[in-house]
Amino acid sequence: MTRSRIDADKPASLLPGTLDMLILKAVSLAPLHGYGVLLRIRQISGNALDIPQGSLYPALHRLDHQGLIATEWGQSENNRRAKYYTLTAAGRRRLRDEAAGWTRLATAIDAAMRATSEEV
Amino acid sequence: MLARLRSLVGSLAQRRTFEADLDEELGAHIEQYTRDLIGSGMSPEDAHRQARLELGGLNTVKDECREARGLGAFDAFQRECRYAARQLRRSPGFAGTVVLTLALSIGANTAIFSLVNTLLLEALPYAQPERIGTLYARTSGLESAEARRTVDGEQWEHVRDEVSSVVPAVATTGTSGANIRAGSVVRYVRAGRVSARYFDVLALHPVVGRTFAPDEDVPNGPNVAMLSHALWQNMLGGRTDVVGQSVMLKGEPYTVVGVLPEGATTPLEADVYTALQPNRDGDGRAANFRLVMRLRDGATWQQADAELHRALSASSRFQNFARENPGTQLNYHAVPLQQAATDTLRPQVLALMIAAGLIVLIACANIAGLSLVRMLRRTREITIRLALGASRWQIQRQLWVEHLLLAAAGGMVGLGVGALALRGLLQLLPERFLPVATVTLDGRVLGFTLLLSLMTCVLSGVLPAVAMGGVSLRSSAPGRGVIGGGHIRLRQMLIGGEVALTVVLLAAAGLLVRTLIGLQTMPPGFNPAGVITAKVSLDDVRYHDPGAFRRLLTESLSAMSRIPGVQSAAVALTLPYERAVFNGVKLGSGKEAGRTISTNHVYVTPRYFETMQIAVLEGRVFTDADGPDDQPVTIVNRSFARKFFGEESPVGRYLDDKVLIVGIVADTVLSAEGRLNPGTAPLTREEMVYVPAAQVTDSKMLALAHGFFQPSWIVRTAAPAGVPAQMQRVLSNADPQLAMSGVFEMSDLMALALARQRVAVALLAVMSALALLLSAVGIFALVASVVAQRTREIGILMALGSTVPQTMVRVGRAGVITSGVGLLLGLILCAVVLPAMRSVLYGVGVYDLPTMLAVVLTLVAVTLLATTPILRIARIDPVKALREE
Known about the structure:
The complex is a heterodimer of chains A (about 120) and B (about 900). With about 120 residues, chain A is α+β, with helices and mostly antiparallel strands. Chain A has helices at about 5-10, 20-30, 35-45, 55-65, 90-115, and strands at about 30-35, 70-75, 80-85. Chain A has a single domain, classed as Orthogonal Bundle (Arc Repressor Mutant, subunit A), CATH 1.10.10.10. Chain B has about 900 residues and is of the alpha+beta class. Chain B folds into 5 domains: about 1-70, no CATH class; about 75-125 and about 345-470, no CATH class; about 145-325, no CATH class; about 485-525 and about 750-885, no CATH class; about 540-740, no CATH class. The interface between A and B is medium-sized, with 26 and 35 residues. Chain A: InterPro entries: Metal_resp_DNA-bind_regulator, Tscrpt_reg_PadR_acidobac-type, Tscrpt_reg_PadR_N, WH-like_DNA-bd_sf, WH_DNA-bd_sf. Chain A: It comes from Luteitalea pratensis.
């Protein structure tokens, strides 16, 4: 009963190595605080992706450490002080590279999976 | 990369903010998620629990966030530090000994390095100092390496006109005392003569006015002067209209053309500079000019060397040298001014630095030994930790962290010790000891101390670390008598090495002490007690007239001897413990009759020998009857008589064909500072020729002598109070334009002559005492730990019938053998190292038997003292020791 909302959506587990890319994508759309990143990824994936919450913050700190995202303190929707993450120029470059790489990989896997016996 | 570093530094620097932000961020997350869960119909309690659960362990997440920032290693290091500090607090004896040892050795090094830093590393206070050079000559094929750093007027002309790769300038070799008068103010100043462009070479630009123009720097040019900033301020009130004004200098009007910037100094360190106006002969037909030059843009020093050599070898001085010394080679070249300025001090300072370095090695050996023992005591702890799954690296890391903490503490305390030592050292140094600036603990010194501390950490930590590598799970039987046998041999080697180094330091210090004692106890040849002297410059055109000179002496001396309490008064061109005029004299008879020899000359007034209480060995002293028109007479000292007349008496013979020798007096001590031969002692007893002041009738001679030397007025008194002021009054009355350089007691002047030696000896003595102390601590700790570790073994031996003395000998042997081997090694080292000291030893051989005996005896005494832990053996109860077994 407690997990009803999430269970109902049956989120897919995250592919290894894609968390950083997803965070960068989420943040590229608008400045977000940590919880906002979580919601945004869920939203833009059509509730298909759910991030393990324990990995979110270490990932954010890692990206900040690498200079891919920047932080500033602001007001959240419910008037609380919150840390907002925005994409830096380096982050934008990284996102572009990762997205391109992902598309290549996905296309290749997709093509491979569509193969029929005649094509072999 | 840069971003990561910035992020790490940022989170490190604002660690508290970072942690608070992290708490707040995670707290906000849980809160928002909880709210959303409640919104989806969950009960508040469940929602809160669920939110926390999904985030995972809060501490784990935080740790991962810290790790992401690169903070993890720092946190681990901090934990290690705290743990190490706790461990060290538990053995305060060990920690205290190590920190103290480090502090003393690092302190000694910091103080000495500050000197090295200032003297040898700090650049001279001129723009682009590496482009400033001075002249040296290297001789080959000559028996004694004679340094020729000066040129005469003719050579200067060659350099000035033929060398194009440098901007050359020239100055007198030193300053001389002179009187300067502006209005009614009279001052005794240090005057130096410099050529045009001298200040350009040093890149010093006057704050007021200009420097000397080339057309002023010619023989018989105008009298022009430049003032130091300090003299301008305190004599002329810093008035800017000083340029063009006239001051009376050396009895003549000089026009002030410029003022040097505040704090600016030249190698001459003069208060007043006048144009050199060089003549072809140099001053007094000698090489009395010193070159400085600045490399022109685009030129190289190789070019300059070649040009200098070519120009100088065209001079008659060079050709005379080549003629007189066949088979020798004289090569002129430029050396950096920095190097030249610190030339005489460098060997001493470097020797001290080496001594200080030895101290650090000794300290590290000691600490290594101590922590080796500590390591053994902790074998149990280490094996337990190994058994519990700690990796060797983790245990090693902990050891290193402990050493790092100790080194940091030692370094910090050492810096304080060094600052104190430096303050003491600077107070010990005579004024004007350092040719450049002030000695401070600057960034470079701090960096040195930091590096040194790290080095001690590594040096003292390597052995224990290696030893720990040998600890295995199987060595978990601590307390067995056999444990650490190999380690004790290792420590014996360490301490033996320490002792060897200590022996070298002790021997070096001993030799220097013997040299100093020899110099200090040299019979002065006169009685300094109650002698007060005052120097006055007679470098004054008015006193080029021998009549005026004689009148001044007669009038001032008769007034001075009337001062209450004054027993007698005299004037001498130079005093004992100073240098004298070196001049030629033709021998009239004796072994080398007809030959002209160079020897020390001094003019004195009749009562000089009485005033100084110099013994008259034969003949008579000068009297007032030895006037300018009478028979020229002279008195020689004993060395002169012995050297040139041997057994026969020179009294009644002639010098220079017509000067009658009327007496022989005792030798007095002279300063040898600045002598060409670097191997001479700072004080010597040499041949000396005395002439009556009244018979110096050549005005050129007077001008020349007073250009280099300032005569001293000397009184002997039993009641010195008030005498200096009276002497000043008498001299002012005799000539209001004369100023004294100051009044000194003869004994102070004598002490000053050996000040540099005393400093060097004191420093080396302190350092060898330190080394001895450290070695004693090492031996003491060694014996003590042997006793402690072998308590059971000793108990068994005694139960089997060994007597206490027998056992003591058995155990004490470790310390005694260590020390003995160290001593032997040290003596061998001495044979290798000490000959390098030969140039600073006078009257003492390198293998001086009394010194070596003293070193050996000291070491034996210290070893015996340090072996006292064997006395604890008497308290061992064999029954108890056996029961524990």
